UniProtKB/TrEMBL annotation:
SUPFAM superfamilies: ATPase domain of HSP90 chaperone/DNA topoisomerase II/histidine kinase. This is ATP-binding protein. The keyword Nucleotide-binding applies. Residues 147-254 form the Histidine kinase/HSP90-like ATPase domain.
């Protein structure tokens, strides 16, 4: 039985990749091994729920495969803004840490979601909750419909493809969303600890991409029509296109590779993330119409049909 010490100090962290660097060795643990987390939540800037999701997802993954998870918080300041924020977005609840809140919770509606686990049973409800955050800022209607479509496709990919046993719609993941009015930005993350893009894309018996290596699979995952044959292959491509038009940022990390897209497209060798996480940052003051995403009538019609099927009348959200 092996021991894996993991140290995460948010005073030294400013990116998702740095968190994965800290977490990566934990993914080598097997049943009856011990992973001990030492976490310092103090920061010199801001604490983000999309960073905390990566930790919570990892802790729950390890426990699910029989790894013994222990931990402690370093320099834990009970009344600090960081600790209160972590509690408010349900980070402590997700990792099983008992923290007694001594503050009154303000409503999250229209501003953020707590860190939540999703699967096929509750994904649509969580998706609608996030759509209400998009509506809150009254961003361009066309852009909102494209973003909610892209978000659903990312969540659906986790539900459909994260399991490695050949089943679909049995996957699960973690998600958070927060709107930052002063920055005019929305940050969303969807994370799972499943089989990863390479295995999902190359092992299906009807896949056309069986010969791709991990880097090639990730790089091509955002191309139009790339699928393991169980979908249309538009979701990540539409998300990629939206981010480029909006000037935002997209990160897709799977296995030992991370694909970052903003004005450029950059694929890097990285520390290992077990499964896939997708981070989306959009600028709410930069409108993108869906005719820039779906460039022919067939794609537009398919988009409208899926939007109606999943979302119905947006007035129902209120």
């Amino acid at each position: 039985m092996a021991n894996f010490p993991i140290t995460i100090d948010f005073r030294n962290i400013s990116s998702h990749n740095q968190i994965v660097d800290a977490l990566s060795t934990a993914f080598d643990a097997v049943a009856d091994d011990t992973v001990h987390f030492t976490i310092n939540l103090n920061t010199y800037s801001m604490l983000y729920s999309d960073h905390l999701v990566l930790i919570g997802s990892t802790v729950n993954h390890l426990r699910s495969i029989g790894v013994i998870v222990t931990g402690n918080f370093q320099d834990f300041r009970v009344d600090s803004a960081q600790v209160k924020y972590a509690s408010r977005v349900n980070f402590f609840e997700q990792i099983g840490f008992a923290y007694a809140e001594n503050f009154q919770r303000q409503k999250a509606s229209g501003r953020f979601t707590e860190i939540k686990r999703f699967d096929d049973d509750n994904a649509l409800d969580i998706h609608k909750e996030i759509v209400s955050i998009l509506l809150k800022d009254s961003i361009n209607d066309d852009m909102m419909t494209v973003l909610e479509y892209c978000l659903w496709e990312v969540m659906d990919n986790t539900i459909r493809h994260s399991q490695s046993d050949g089943t679909i719609y049995n996957g699960s993941g973690y998600i958070s969303c927060q709107y930052f009015p002063s920055k005019k930005q929305i940050r969303i993350i969807v994370a799972d600890n499943g089989q990863g893009i390479h295995q999902a894309l190359t092992t299906h018996p009807n896949s056309k991409y069986k010969l791709l290596n991990e880097a090639e699979a990730l790089n091509q995952s955002v191309n139009k029509g790339v699928t393991n044959s169980t979908g249309m292959g538009f979701g990540l491509w539409a998300t990629d296109t939206l981010i480029r038009e909006n000037g935002g940022k997209l990160i897709i990390h799977s296995g030992n590779h991370s694909l970052e897209i903003d004005n450029n497209k950059n694929l890097e060798n990285t520390s290992k993330w077990q499964g896939v996480y997708t981070y989306i940052r959009v600028n709410t003051d930069v409108a993108v119409t869906y005719d820039k995403i779906f460039d022919d009538d067939g794609q537009k019609n398919a988009f409208e049909e899926l939007k109606e099927k999943l979302l119905g009348n947006l007035d129902d959200l209120w």
